[in-house]
Amino acid sequence: MSFIEDRSQASDIEKMRLKVKAKNKGLWSSHSVFFICSIVIALWGYALQLEANVTGNCSNCHTMHNSQNGMSVAVDRSMYGTPPYGNLLKDTCVGCHMATNGATWKDPFTGAPIVFNTSAPQYGASSGGGPKQGLAGGNFYWVAAAGGNDPTKGHNVWGISGQDPNLADAPGAQNIHWGCATPTCHQTLATNPASTTSPPNDNRHKNGCEGCHLYVSHHTDSGCYRYLCSHGYPGDASHGIRGAGDPNWESNPSSTTHNTYIAAAGQNLLSWGYGNISAFCAGCHWKFHTLDTDPNNGIGIGSPWFRHPTDVVMPASGEYSVYTIYSLIAPVGRPEGNFPADPSQVRPGTDMATCISCHRVHGSPYFKMMRWDYKSSTLSTALSGCNECHTSKN
Amino acid sequence: MRTNWNTKGRIIFSVIFFVLSTMLLALCCILYPDSVSSGPYLNSAHGDSNYGVNRSATATFGYAKGNCAHCHEQHASIGGSEPAPAGGSPSRYAIFADNFISQTDDFCFYCHRGIGSVQVLFSRTNYNYSYWFGGDTVNHATPNNIYDAFNPVLGSSHNLQDILNFVKTKWPETFKDESNPCNACHNPHLAQRGYPVVRPTDRNNIWGDSASEHMSDYATAHGGLYQAPYRYNSTTTYEPDGSGTTDGSNVPDYITFCSDCHNATNVIYSTILGRNLSYINWANPNRTYLQAGDYHGSITRCFDVDGNSGGQWKTCGCIKDDSYGFASGFCRGAPVDAAGCCLYNGHTVNAPVWWGDIKPPYKTANYPNFILNCTDCHEPHGAVHGNGTTTPYLLRKTVNGHYNKQCAGGPGNPCTWEEEFCRSCHHHRNSTEQTYIPEFDRTITSDGWHCGGPGNCLNCHNHNAYAKCYACWWCATPPIGGTPGHTF
User: Engineered SS bond to B435: which of A307, B110, B355, B379, CB 3.0-4.6 Å?
Assistant: First the structure.
C-alpha cells in the first residue's frame, strides 16, 4: 500500500468531500476573521468609549421651520437670543442637557446626559453620605439660581449662572490669555457665546458650554472624549481628551463602574496629543498644572511641589502605597494604553492624580467644586478626600 | 434568690441591649465625629478639631480647625487670591510661606510666635519645658512662644541652620535643602501635645508614646534607674506631670531621641560656639579614663549620695572645736569617739553635706546608678536670658523644682549662673550650709573653689569630660592619686 495519495485516482465522492471541506475551510476562515475583528473592535470601542453620535429622530433636536400648527417649536432661551437656533436646533446646549427635576440623568427623548438639574440631583456619587453629585462631571445645580446661586460651587457658564463675582479671571490663568482678546473662554465662560465681535463666534473662541466642549459634532464622533477637543481640531482629533466612559456616565457609579480619564506623566505643558484631562484644564488654569521651575508660573518640576501636582505618578511607597482600591471621592487618572484589567484597582507607581481627582468640573455641592466637603466643620469629613491618597494624614 | 432567664427574657434583654448599645454608639458618632475615624493626623495637635491649626485668613473662608488649608494652599491661592500672609512666590510643599530662611524666618514661626501670629488663638501657650513639665508657672511667663524660645536675648538655643546643615548631610534621603529644620525633631502631621517629637531616623512614628520608649526603659536597659526631678516648689510631686511617679515610665526617653544627633560619633558644628559640639555618650557604663561616658548617663557613680566614696555622715556632739568644725553637728564616717567627736580629722559641719553631694529626691532614692533624661537639665528649644543671667547650652532655669536666680554676690553666695544651676541637685557653697571638700580636706562656707576656679563648674563638669582635673582622681583606681577620670 502506497502512502502517497494520488488525487487523480480519488473517487468522485472523495473529490466532492474534499471540495466541501475546502469550501467549509474558507467559510470558517472568513468567519474567524470577522469574529476576531468584531472582538477587536468591541474591545477597542469599550476601551476608548468614543463619543457615541446621537441617534433617533431628527425632530428630537431639529425643527425645519420652527413652526408646528402655527406655534413656535424651539424653546425660547432668551439669554441666547431669539429661537430658532443655529443648525435648526430646537434648543440650546443647556436646554437639551438640563432637567426640571432632580431624578433625570438622561433625557428620555434625546438620550442626552443631564448636567443641570433644577432640583438637587438624586443620582450619581456622593461623599460620605452627602448629597448626590450628578453625573461624572458633576452638576450645575448648585451654581445656578435653583441651587443657591453659589459661584464657588461650579463653573459659571453662560445660560446657567452669571459671571463669578469673586473671580476676575480663571484662577491660575496665564496673564496673556493665550493671545486671545479678552474676555475669552480662558478668562470666563459666562460671557455671551453669540458675540461675534470679541471674541469671534467660532469654534475656537466660543464661551459658555462650548468654551470647553469644542466642535460638538453630535452626528459623528469627534474623536474627542466628551467633545473636549482642542483648537487643533478639526484636522487633528488626537489633540483632544481621551478616556473610557461609563455607559451611564456615572449615574450610579461604583469602584468597578466609572469613567476613566487619561493622565500623562510628565506631560504637564500644554502639549496637546496626550489625551490628558488635566492639560485641558490647564488651558485656563495653566499654573495649576504646568511643570515649571518658576513658582509663579507652575507647580514646580519635582517634589516638593509648589502646587499640588497633577499628571505626576503617585509614589508606590509610603502612605500612597495603601491607595489600591479606586475611590469615587478622589479617583485617579490612568496612563493611556495602561488601564488595569480590574477597573477597581489603583496602582501606586503608575496611576496619577488629575484635576478631576478633586473637582467636579461642572459643579458640586461643595466649595470650589470639590468632590467632597473640604470645608466641612467635621474635620474627618473635610479631609476624607485628601486621605484617599494621603492615607497617613487621617 | 437566684433568677434564671427564660428564652423570652433572654431575647428581650438581648434586643434591648443591642438597641441601647447601638444608640450609644450612634450618639458617640454624633458627638465626636472626628474620633470615629481619627488617624494619626486627627490625633495630632495640629489636626485636633478643637485646638488644631487655624490660620486666621483661612478660618475666614470657613475651613475647620486642623484643615490642611491652614498650612497648605494646593494651588497657592484660594478663591483666586492669596490669603494672608500674602506676598512672595508659591512655596514648596504648597505651604503658604517659605519653609525655612533663617533663625527668625521659619514657616512654623508664622503661627508659633507672639505678636503677628497668624493662628487665630492658641488654646495652650507654648511656654517652655520648665513651665509645662517642670511646673514652674511662676518664673517662666516668657518665652511664651516658640519664636522667642529660638531667639532669646542673651540666652542660648538650637541653631536652626546648624540643624539643617547637619541633618541634610547625615540623612540626605530624608532632609533636603528645602526642608524645615524643625522637622528634624517634629512631624507636624503627627506631633501631639504630650508627645511632640519623632526621631529624625523614624519620622513617621511618634517617639515616646509607646512601650519601650520611656525613660524607665532606657535606664533599665542601661543598668541604671531613673529618678524624676521635683516639680517646681514641691517635694512631693515630680516631673513631667506633677504626679507621684518617679521611675520615668511617664516621660519619653529623650536620651534615645536626642542621641540620633548628639551621640559619641556625630560631628555637629555649632555656629554660636564656633566649634564642634562635645560628643555625648550616655550609654557607655565604663568609667575608664579616656573612654567616653558620663556619670549622669550610664556610668555607675563612685561617690555615695553624700559625695564621698565611702562612709556615712554621723551625727555627733563633740566638745572639741577647731577652726573649721562645729561643736556639734555631723561628721563623716564612723565611728565617733567617746567624746562624740568624729574620728576623721575631727571635723564636723552643721549639715551632713559634702561638696558635690546630691540633694533629694536623688539622695533619698539613693540609686547606685542614676541615669538622667536630657530634659531634666536642658530646654529643647532654647533657654532664655532671665533674671539677669545668661543661660548657655540650653540649660533650664528651673531644675529639680529649683529656680536659679541671679546670684547676689558676696561671701556665701554663688555668683555664677552655673553654680546656681548645679546647686539644683548638688550641694555647693552657699551662705547657709558648709560643705566639705575632700580633696582639700576642709570645709567651705563661701567663696570656695577648687581646680576649675570659682564658680565655673562647666569648665570641668561637662559632657564627655573623661580627662579632667584633680577631682576625678577620686574614682580612679586606686582611689586618690590615680589617673584622672570622669567629671560628669
Answer: B355
pLDDT-derived band at A175, boundaries 50, 70, 90: low
Instruction: Choose the mutation target among B29, B63, B75 for the interface with A, i.e. most A CBs under 10 Å.
Output: B75
β strands within A135-259, DSSP E: 243-244
How many residues comprise chain B? 488
Cα dihedral: B133, B186, B65, A305 (round 10): 170
Nearest to A308 among B75, B178, B204 (CB): B75
Neighbours of A187 (CB within 10 A): 23
Q: B91 CA to chain A: closest CA distance, Å?
A: 5
Return d(Cα B68, Cα B96) in angstroms, integer.
11
User: How far away is chain B from the Cα of A115, in angstroms, using its nearest Cα?
Assistant: 24
Q: Is the dihedral of CA B405, B411, B416, B418 positive or negative?
A: negative
Distance, first Cα to last Cα, chain A: 85
CA distance B144 to chain A (A): 28
**Chain segment B453-481, per-residue pLDDT in tens:** 556 778 778 898 876 654 445 444 544 44
* CA B431 from centre of chain: 29
Residues 6+ apart with CB under 8 A from A31: none
- SS3 (DSSP) at B124: coil
Look-up of cell digits 524666618: B105
What's the rounded Cα separation, in Å, for the pair A325 and A336? 19
Summarize pLDDT for B134-190 with one digit per residue, the tens: 999 999 999 999 999 999 988 899 999 999 999 999 999 999 999 999 999 999 999
Place of cell 563623716: B332
Rg (CA), chain A: 26
Q: What pTM was computed for the model?
A: 0.83
Closest Cα to residue A265, out of A343, A332, A352, A181?
Answer: A352
Q: Does A296 touch chain B (CB under 8 A)?
A: yes
Query: DSSP strand E in chain A: where?
Result: 98-99, 116-117, 243-244, 260-261
Question: Among A275-289, A349-363, B240-254, whose mean pLDDT is lowest?
Answer: A275-289
ipTM above 0.85, yes or no: no
The whole-angstrom separation of Cα B339 and Cα B321 is 12
Adjacent-strand bridge partners of A313: A352
Residue A38 CA to residue A33 CA, distance in Å, equals: 8
Find all residues with CB under 8 Å of B86, minimum gap 6, and list them. Answer: none
Per-residue 3-state assignment (H helix, E strand, C coil) for A304-334: CCCCCCCCCECCCCHHHHHCCECCCCCCCEE
Do the Cβ atoms of A379 and B68 come within 8 Å?
Answer: no
- CB A374 to CB B47 under 8 A? no
Looking at residue B315, its pLDDT comes to 58
Nearest CB among B77, B89, B90 relative to A171 is that of B77
Measured between beta carbons, the chain A residues lying within 8 angstroms of B92 are 295, 300, 304-306
Using CA atoms, how far apart are residues A337 and A350, in angstroms rounded to an integer?
12
Between CA B385 and CA B102 the distance in angstroms is 21
Phi–psi pair at A208, nearest 5 degrees: 65, -150
Q: Give me the DSSP letters along B267-333.
A: --EETTTTEEPPP--SS-----TTS---TTTTSPPSS-TTSSSS--EEEE--S---SS--SSEEEES
Dihedral in degrees, nearest 10, Cα atoms B47, B50, B55, B57:
130
Residue B109 in 3-state DSSP? helix
Alpha-carbon distance B170 to A179, whole Å? 50
**Using CA atoms, how far apart are residues B106 and A66, in angstroms rounded to an integer?**
68
- Residue A187: predicted pLDDT: 73
Q: Which of A305, A318, A379 sits opposite B49 (nearest CB)?
A: A379
Cβ pair A387:B39 closer than 8 A: yes
Whether B64 sits inside 8 A of A300 (CB atoms) is: no
Could you check whether the bond before residue A200 is cis, i.e. omega within 30 degrees of 0? no
